[in-house]
Every structure is written in structure tokens, then in C-alpha cells.
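Researcher: Go.
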Amino acid sequence: ARAARLGASGCASFRAWEETGGAPARLLVAIDEFHALAAWDAAHREALARLASAAGAVGVHLLLATSRPTSALDPDVRASIGTVIALRVGSEAASRDLVGTADAARLPEGIPGRAVVACAGRRCEVQLATPVATPSPRVRVIGRRVDEETVTLAQEVRSGHRDAPPVGPLWAPRRDED
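Model: Structure:
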């Protein structure tokens, strides 16, 4: 329906259609554990490949998350992916498959959120989530009580973030801010 509406608009691209004010909002479709969806039958895989190849042209963007990228991405879907974000992976082969180098396999274990981003032939290491923050207020139990083991686990997780190393900004400043 979006493609037909874009064609009827007389605009050459979705971006041009947006500039007229007549385009629908862009959509972000997030699919977690994409490998499970990709494991369905051939008809589903073909539909996903068609969606991946045509979605961006009509303002639909896909975010595909998987813990098994090597088996999930067939060549048609892979060809449509513009940016890959790889958290630490278990092998250099998996890292090479994702970002073209072994860098994602060499990310430090002790820094949650560290990743390698590959886009347009370039790669860089980034910090996606800052594992340190102002301590949050103590948890108050509302409703059913939890067992002592769960409370202890929650406190250990919270205290573990306190000692995490500080990280720099996620991206470089804009050129006019230099």
C-alpha cells in the first residue's frame, strides 16, 4: 500500500514525499531473535527477503536482532542490510561474518554494551549503553512478596554496575562543535 501511495504522490522518493508533508510516518519494525523467524519455511524466508529489499524505499526500516546471525541471514537479506551492530560474539569466524573483521570477538567481556558498528565499508567500536549511572532508588515491593534469593540477586546486579569503568561519548561531536 505504501508503494502504491508513493507512486500516486508523483514523488520520486520517500524523502521527496516527506518534504511535501503528505507521506505517512516512517516505521521501525523490530524483530527480536530473527533466526527463529527465518527458520520457518521457504515462503516466509522469501517474504522476509522481499520486505528487507523494498522496505527502505517506502519509509519502513528493519531492526533484526539475533543471537545466531550466521544461520539467520540468507544472502538476499544480508544484501539489504546497511548497518550491522555486533556486540561481543563467541568466535572470530562469527565476527568476520558480521562485520568483516575479528573485532567483535575481541571486545572486552567486562564492559557491557561495547559493540562494533559496520556501515558503508567502515567499522568503529562504540559504547551502546553506559553501564554506570546514578544509583536508582531502592526497590519497593508492591503486591506479592518475592523470595530472599531474588532480592539478593537484584542487589548484586545493582552493585555490580557501580564498579563498571566509565566510558566516553557514543559518537564524536558535530564538526561545528569542534
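Model: Helices lie at 2-9, 14-20, 34-38, 42-54, 69-72, 75-79, 92-99, 148-162.
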